[in-house]
Amino acid sequence: MKHDLKRGALLLASATFFTAALNALQKLTGSTLPALEIIFFRNLFSLPFVLLIAARTTIVLRTHHFGGHLLRSVVGLVSMIMVVITVTRLPLAEQQVLSYTQPLFLVLLSIPLLHEKPSLQRWIAVSIGFSGVVVVAMGKGLLHGAAGTVAHWAYFVALAQGAVGALTTMQIRQLSATEASTTIALWQAILMTVMTALPLPFIWTTPSMTDAACLVAVGAFAGIAQVLQTEAFASAQVSAIGPFAYSGLLWAGLIGWFGFGEVPGVAMVLGGLLIIGSGVWMLRHDRPAQKQAAVEGTMDTASGTQA
């Protein structure tokens, strides 16, 4: 793989911008439209971009692990619902920083599910990361019952979404042992579109012209982010450009500040630095082989965009 750090970093940072932008649009539409309706259009309008990625190699839908794809899509759908719920109720930067707990939960889940034994460095990183969560929680008074304008349960849902996102990543890694990355992405997009289409007649809320435009943009931004992430991890090693994935916090903070008047607090910034620092530490400590990193990085970030 040709290693172009500058190109890979720029593409990944751009991908995080589109992800932050689609979360902002989900925040706008989430107050008037059902979460499943938003997610249906997100998957529907992102499908052309998934096909674009697949067409670069070979579009393969044949699989001997349909059950695995179905389970992965169900878990991914739950993760998407949790994202819509939390971005609707939390400041964008706070939702974003809590989503960065995914690598921490990945370490914890690897013990019972993959029978792995995390190294001492990983345990230190996990401890630092969750201490960051505590700092964010203390800043919001979640640990001592202080009243606030945001429901406390929304923060717990955001934290739980990190665990569910870690589970989807683990499922993708298991599927990628026998399935092509494009096959996984295609089945995910197709199954999620179908699953969210089924309840539409019962929950349908006719969107306004503004909401309709936002729904199209949500799907387009999700697809663009996935294309950019794929190109980024095809351009450089995951261990080299991975930290640029955390630039999403900058975009979320700026969009939240100027778009919604959400000014990040000191506790959120300090907690975010601890969480992000733990993730970067684990990323630098692992440094997987270039080829395997490219494959896993593409799939992990594609999962992040979809879920």
UniProtKB/TrEMBL annotation:
Main subcellular localisation? membrane
Quote the subcellular location field of this record. Membrane
Q: Which residues form the EamA domain?
A: 7-137, 153-280
Q: Which UniProt keywords apply?
A: Membrane, Transmembrane, Transmembrane helix
PANTHER family according to UniProt: ACYL-MALONYL CONDENSING ENZYME-RELATED, SOLUTE CARRIER FAMILY 35 MEMBER G1
In the record, the note on similarity to other proteins reads: Belongs to the drug/metabolite transporter (DMT) superfamily. 10 TMS drug/metabolite exporter (DME) (TC 2.A.7.3) family.
Protein name (database record): DMT family transporter
